[in-house]
Amino acid sequence: MINIYDIFDRVLMEASRRVKQFFKKYASRLAIVVIVLVSVISPLSGSDHTKASLYDGAPLIPLTDEIVTVGPKKVEIKLTESLYQAEQKAKQEQLAARQSVILAYNVKYADPGLAVKREWAKKAASAYNIDWKILEAVWRVESGMRWKTYVTSYAGAMGPCQFMPGTWRGYAQDGNGDGIKDVSDARDCLFGAAKLLAVNGAASGNVVNALLRYNYSYAYVEKVLAIAKTL
């Protein structure tokens, strides 16, 4: 005989077992659903004070259907020089500076030609009352009539007229009037040479003695006189 109570107990046990299986299987999903529902319902049912506390006073931005297009940001890339490039640039600038100085020097002291040189020889000779041909001949023998030179002989003579330093200090002149007695400038040294020759006899007609005081060599004297005769 089947006991009704036994059947009822079995049904309850089976139902309990199925309920446990259901919650075990879907418990995590149910928990998520509950959390979502709570988070949605709570702000709607709260007071204004609660709403304000959620946003901490930040202004609410209304939602619209407007589409905003944001373009790409322009990034400026500045290329920097490498150390090698900087060094090369500095060298080029230094070279250009030197070349400009050399160019300016060459322009200022460019050889003016024979006519201008001769005029300066005549001007210096006239200032000290000597023969310009003797003065030009000395200039030719000493340096080939150089206009501007820093060449120094093995003995230490300097400039277009080849003055020894001590001799130049005694006869230095500012022939071109620039305020500088420059032994390397023909315009100054011609006046100095004319003064030396004049003081030592050329102004009074004793050219040989004057030339010997300039360079104590009879071969030198003969060479200067021979050149002077051709001028």
Key terms:
rod-shaped; 2 domains; 231 residues; Lysozyme; mainly alpha
Compact summary:
By secondary structure, the chain is an all-alpha fold.
Structure report:
There is one protein chain. The protein has 2 domains: 4-55, no CATH class; 114-230, Orthogonal Bundle (Lysozyme). The protein is built from 9 helices and no strands. The chain is mainly alpha-helical and 231 residues long. 19% of the residues are buried. α5 packs across α9.
For the largest beta-sheet, the strand count, sense and barrel status come to: none
Low-confidence segments, given as residue ranges, are 46-55
**Order of SSEs, N→C?**
HHHHHHHHH
What global shape is seen? rod-shaped
Mean pLDDT: 78
User: DSSP strand (E) fraction?
Assistant: under 5%
Q: Given the structure, what is the number of helices? A: 9
* Rg on CA atoms, Å: 55 Å
Number of domains: 2
CATH class division of the largest domain: Mainly Alpha
CATH architecture of the largest domain: Orthogonal Bundle
- Cα(first) to Cα(last) distance is 168 Å
User: Would you count the extended β strands for me?
Assistant: 0
Helix content: 55-70%
Structural class, judged by helices and strands?
mainly alpha
What is the CATH topology classification name of the largest domain? Lysozyme
Which secondary structure elements does this structure contain, and how are they paired or packed?
Blueprint: H1 4-45, H2 48-55, H3 83-108, H4 114-127, H5 132-143, H6 165-171, H7 186-199, H8 207-214, H9 218-230
Helix pairs in contact: 4-5, 4-7, 5-9, 7-8
